[in-house]
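FAQ: What does the model actually see?

It sees only this:
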Amino acid sequence: MSLQTHEGRVAVITGAASGFGQAISVGLAARGANIVAVDVADPSETVAQIEEHGRKALVLTADVTDPDAVADIGAQVRSAFGRCDILVNNAGIYPVRPFDEVDFALWRKVHAINLDSQFLMTKAVVDLMKENGWGRIVNITSNSIVIAVPGLSHYMASKAGVIGFTRGLATDLAALGITVNAVGPTATPNAAFKADPAGPAMIEAVVAMQAIKRPGHADDIVGTVAFLTTDDAAFVTGQTIMADGGLARI
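And it is asked to produce this:
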């Protein structure tokens, strides 16, 4: 890719080892960014692809739900790159369970990974953005919050919280040159969905509701995230964009 829209930028991406996080990491590296790959899983495949584009990758193994584990991420990014321009809060899980099988432990686990981590990661790196008077935060939400999908009450609650957090944070950080937006992908037939007994049927049902009649892929949200993390999107903040094949229209 020849467009170097992110030349010189440093992007921190959670859940970078696979799926959306991997696609976003590689997509921003292709556009010129150096990447901080945060995950509890091994992101070596992601790192290899980043380096193929001639960009640097810093791997930080951290549980993004653990305040202590996240607290020094900003210092590690500062030490490695001296700056942080972009944060993509992508880490998330989506266990499909009917409500009567959702206990409080699962409810809290889903919220900790899908929502609490976004608060913690923002706290960890936002001071670096403030120092440069420029920052782009993108929080990954879901189109499920505006459609009828069974077995996801716990997940949908967490992803609706992401939108609320995005809107509030956008107002709080606007005067500092930092924008905050959310991107909602559609359900994609990744390994987690394929492994879940209810996953294939859910993908089929979601595709039937989309304007574009094919399953979503991780790469489908990269362009939207890339735009929101450039100077071109300087006047876009507090928004939720559904990059989901025309399913959710808000």
